[in-house]
Amino acid sequence: MGRQPxxxxxxxxxxxWTIEEDHKLMSFIINNGIHCWRMIPKHAGLLRCGxxxxxxxxxxxxxxxxxxxxxxxxxxxxxxxxxxxxxxxxKIAAHFPGRTDNEIKNHWNTRIKKRLKxxxxxxxxxxxxxxxxxxxxxxEQTSHSNEDKEPQIKPLSNPALESYAVGEKxxxxxxxxxxxxxxxxxxxxMLWDSFNxxxxxxxxxxxxxxxxxxxxxxxxxxxxxxxxxxxSSLQEDSHCIPSVDSLLSWDGFNPFDDFFPLQNYL
DNA sequence: AACGGTAACAACCGCAAGTAT
DNA sequence: AATACTTGCGGTTGTTACCGT
Length: 266
Prior knowledge:
Subcellular location: Nucleus
Distance between the termini: 51 Å
Main location: nucleus
Helix content: 40-55%
Keywords: DNA-binding, Nucleus, Repeat, Transcription, Transcription regulation
Number of helices: 14
GO molecular function: transcription cis-regulatory region binding
InterPro entries: Homeodomain-like_sf, Myb_dom, Myb_TF_plants, SANT/Myb
Number of domains: 2
Order of helices and strands: HHHHHHHHHHHHHH
């Protein structure tokens, strides 16, 4: 039998969203909240599938989104979290209120990966590249067990201890040219020394479990629709509401101009 | 000015997990 | 317990802007 597709694809629009579509989606969600993504396009008068609407809301329209490039500090945090969590972008994003998993994933793939490679680090394992290759070769040669043959994909079990004793060596070895890269390297090294990742992740996991993208969205929309009473209130998640600056910093288009009486919420 | 290459970002797709019946 | 359905996630692709030649 198989599963029903999430939506009837025939006649649906794809590709970049127009401003009108954004307005329709915003307006609908603000007035009605989010109950069922599948129904939203139909009721909002959009020729999109629910999935597409959800993505657009989460990655672009959500009022609590923090726009702009990630700071150096955020970048370093991402690196640390990636060393521990691997490609679990949503888990990583949960540590950055206002950032989306898509955004962090894109940032990782387009920038951080390259910088790590420049530093001679394998973005996958966070180990020095040559060492990774060497380890792989050695394990192939010795071939002790099947476990030894596993590719070096697992995140480090204790990255703070393992990786950054090589810091000095790496710096000598790769003669990294740009100041940026050197800065990244230094802070990377420093952070491992000083940052108690374990406790940070744990505390963050407990505190952010309620502020994932979805619950955040809901709590915010709830705040516009007190009658919904579906979940937590704005008070609880108020830290997710962005500053005026971040709301107003959208280039060209601020979808909230038409819908949000901002002064009531900020 | 035209072209090609690249970076950055947005959006789509397929699958898995979670939930309701 | 089984099935149907929805939602969320991660990988991938598409699009656009920018830059160097």
